[in-house]
Model the fold of this input.
Amino acid sequence: MRIVRHVSLAAAAAALAVLAIGASAGRAPQAAAPAADRLTPPPSGPIPVAFVLSEGAVMIDFAGPWEVFQDVYLPHRGKDMDEQMPFRLYTVAETKAPIRISGGLQVVPDATFDDAPPPKIVVIPAQGGTTPKMLEWIRKSAPKADLIMSVCTGAFVLADTGLLAGKSATTHHGAYKAFAMKFPDVRLEKGMRFVENGSFATAGGLSSGIDLALRVVERYFGREAAQQTAFQMEYLGEGWTKPQVNAVFAVRKASTNADPLCPVCDMEVDKASAPTSVFEKKTYYFCSTGHKSQFDASPGTYLQP
Done:
């Protein structure tokens, strides 16, 4: 049985109107999705959404979009909740063995790459790594899917499939340099909440996935449906209509001797405990031994502006 927590549409519409009046004061109204960007939902029946998981998957990267999709409610779409709540969500992994994700939470996958239902949307969060079977399943799903989307460094997984070659993408700001180095055939767009390329989309870090999911709702069912979903969630972020709000992350922070940053990912580090390397008589501090090893293999690459 599906749990329904929705406020009345009349109440939602009234509140949204109040919010819209206040938010839009002094600026031009926002345009809805152009027709070319729209996704076509089935006239009836579910839209299956697969969340690809492996060890270390980051909670908010998939839980944020999961919450968005599960909160979509379209009372005029059908006579019962199975039609009115159109997205059917499931997790897919290498096996059905429990997966330990970020923060220690344990998830038991619903399906494997061998028996998962065909998806119309695939969500790829940041996670511990990839397997050949995972990458092949994503490749095989893409031609019949409406959208393949990544969140945060899930963009590395999606790019590993080769499906982003020649396209634009974004990822977590701390991974810009690593992504650009590993995937020179993908055009990295810094400072974007999300980037869309037809049937592919990539979100920035962590909470950016919520905005990309709301944008997907808009592409299927229009702006009002996405606004009502955001209202149901009590989500006031505007990134799903203005992806440029992540521009602040496009500016790289400066590393100083007093407050050093890891030269691989720009993370703040503790000088007293951080691994170090010396290059051209200067000491560099790292957030992990793994990033130290990456730097030591090609220091000059990481010191380019």
Notes: The domain at 34-250 is CATH 3.40.50.880 (Rossmann fold).
